């Protein structure tokens, strides 16, 4: 996303614009907000082309095409004005990085692992089925037009307090129908621009698309195969030093699939058959892919991180810094302004155990608890996948965890597990807290006093035993505390002891523990 330039519009139709999402030869796409608070992607024809009837006609076809597709696996059209001085199209904004962004991201190194690549293939088959069933061929299936999304739709709620809501689910979305083609169009229609250039992306075009032959759904199957190879290897199967060489390779050269695992290699080979009649249809392709486990994490960590970064960027656009805070200028005794804790951009609290967790605390029953283990742990360990996806999508990749043990009692001690989740700002912390106080609270990890080689807690195996949960949020932090007796006693009479321990632990954690020098 790019900030709006002076030359960019500030509003299109009923949609105030927030940023530029991208641009191409025909137009620009902006991030906007609908009157009901939903985030939208607004596409505008370039100023230089708006009076060109040929381009206006192409834009009309794009809108009509997009409206034919149901939208469950694409970006559904919300509104359009084709007769405006500058025609525009508004579709739902889908949160998540493009496959191209994921491939290009170098921080995590390797391309998609096999399970994620199979999930990608399965998602693309489902999306193409939705497109093909209304008589369309996409014709431009490429990594830039594929979004990898992460569930759950609770993210709609998380942005609602900040004036914007976006769609998000765990799966694949195919976007941009700018050059799609109805399967009943005449041979050669709209396959080339008036200047003679092929319409499409050379490395992902099918041989028949390049040669101007009849385009059928099998063309998208070929593109899927090329996308799959790129996702798995980081390289196009038809790469060359020039566009002409790439086009030649697509038509005449067999793809090198030696870098793919056998299962993925077989799928790609079937898709990349030069003869459209030899390629599998979508049903056959789904059989080749086989069953993709619904319980597997949808995507590798870098997808989570990219989504989280996007979420933080959106939060900064949608809500002024520090909103939701009290007025005045409250100070801690050490001179720290409490309001600075409301936003990541102003909070100077170090992400350390001593800064966020007390060394000990005493609860309302006058029982002392001492910290016996502490340290940062990945958010992926904090709970089940659907909960983790919300935390990481909100920009939280690590939690500060701690384990406390009851001191001096005659019985097996009560263990209190705490986790502090730093969020971008106060509003996000509040929204995540509202999620945690529901059913999710009973699925949070209880950390063990047993530490790993890095001396930080590890998830415990507390599958039984009476437990008490207390969650809270203050400033930009969410606090999660769980109390359980170490012998896993299930008796209900433990309730007041566990409740007092969990409550005081949650209220004792936070940036107030940090004393700057």
UniProtKB/TrEMBL annotation:
Biased composition range(s): Polar residues: 324-344
Organism: Wenjunlia vitaminophila (Streptomyces vitaminophilus)
Highest taxon in the source lineage: Bacteria
UniProt xrefs under PANTHER family: MITOGEN-ACTIVATED PROTEIN KINASE KINASE KINASE 20-RELATED (PTHR43289), SERINE_THREONINE-PROTEIN KINASE YBDM-RELATED (PTHR43289:SF34)
GO molecular function: ATP binding; protein serine/threonine kinase activity
Domain Protein kinase, chain residue ranges per copy: 15-300
The entry's keywords: ATP-binding, Kinase, Nucleotide-binding, Transferase
Entry-linked SUPFAM superfamilies: Protein kinase-like (PK-like) (SSF56112)
UniProt xrefs under Pfam families: Pkinase (PF00069)
Protein name: Protein kinase domain-containing protein
Residue numbers binding ATP: 43
Annotated stretches, region: Disordered: 324-345
């Amino acid at each position: 996303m790019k900030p709006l330039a002076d030359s960019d519009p500030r509003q299109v139709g009923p949609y105030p614009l927030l940023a530029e999402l991208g641009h191409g030869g025909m137009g620009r796409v902006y991030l906007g907000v609908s009157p009901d608070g939903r985030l939208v992607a607004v596409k505008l024809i370039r100023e230089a082309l708006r009076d060109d009837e040929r381009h206006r006609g192409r834009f009309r076809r794009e809108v009509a095409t997009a409206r034919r597709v149901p939208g469950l696996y694409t970006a559904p059209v919300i509104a359009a004005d084709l007769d405006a001085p500058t025609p525009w199209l508004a579709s739902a904004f889908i949160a998540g990085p493009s496959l191209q962004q994921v491939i290009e991201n170098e921080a995590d190194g390797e391309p998609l692992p096999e399970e994620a690549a199979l999930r990608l293939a399965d998602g693309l088959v489902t999306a193409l089925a939705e497109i093909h069933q209304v008589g369309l061929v996409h014709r431009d299936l490429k990594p830039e037009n594929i979004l990898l999304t992460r569930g759950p739709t609770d993210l709609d709620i998380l942005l609602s307090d900040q004036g914007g809501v976006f769609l998000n689910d765990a799966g694949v979305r195919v976007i941009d129908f700018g050059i799609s083609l109805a399967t009943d169009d005449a041979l050669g229609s709209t396959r080339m621009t008036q200047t003679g250039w092929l319409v499409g992306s050379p490395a992902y075009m099918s041989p028949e698309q390049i040669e101007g032959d009849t385009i059928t759904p099998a063309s998208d199957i070929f593109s899927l195969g090329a996308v799959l190879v790129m996702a798995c290897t980081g390289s196009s199967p038809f790469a060359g030093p020039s566009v002409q060489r790439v086009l030649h390779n697509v038509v005449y050269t067999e793809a090198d699939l030696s870098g793919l695992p056998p299962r993925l290699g077989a799928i790609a080979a079937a898709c990349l058959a030069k003869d459209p009649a030899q390629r599998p249809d979508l049903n056959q392709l789904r059989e080749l892919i086989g069953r993709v486990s619904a319980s597997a994490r949808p995507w590798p960590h870098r997808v989570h991180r990219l989504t989280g970064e996007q979420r933080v960027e959106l939060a900064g656009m949608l809500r002024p810094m520090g909103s939701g805070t009290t007025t005045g200028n409250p100070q801690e005794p050490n001179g720290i302004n409490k309001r600075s804790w409301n936003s990541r951009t102003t909070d100077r609290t170090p992400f350390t155990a001593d800064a966020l967790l007390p060394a000990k605390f005493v609860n309302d029953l006058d029982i002392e608890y001492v910290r016996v283990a502490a340290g940062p742990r990945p958010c992926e360990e904090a709970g089940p996948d659907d909960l983790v996806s919300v935390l990481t999508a909100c920009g939280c990749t690590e939690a500060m965890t701690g384990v406390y043990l009851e001191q001096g009692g005659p019985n097996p001690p009560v263990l209190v597990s705490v986790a502090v989740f730093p969020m971008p700002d106060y509003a996000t912390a509040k929204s995540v807290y509202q999620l945690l106080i529901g059913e999710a609270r009973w699925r949070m990890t209880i950390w063990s006093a047993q530490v790993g080689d890095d001396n930080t807690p590890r998830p415990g195996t507390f599958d039984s035993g009476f437990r008490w949960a207390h969650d809270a949020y203050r400033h930009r932090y969410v606090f999660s505390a769980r109390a359980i007796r170490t012998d896993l006693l299930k008796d209900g009479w433990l309730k007041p002891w566990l409740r007092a321990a969990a409550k005081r632990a949650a209220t004792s954690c936070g940036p107030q523990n940090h004393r700057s020098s």
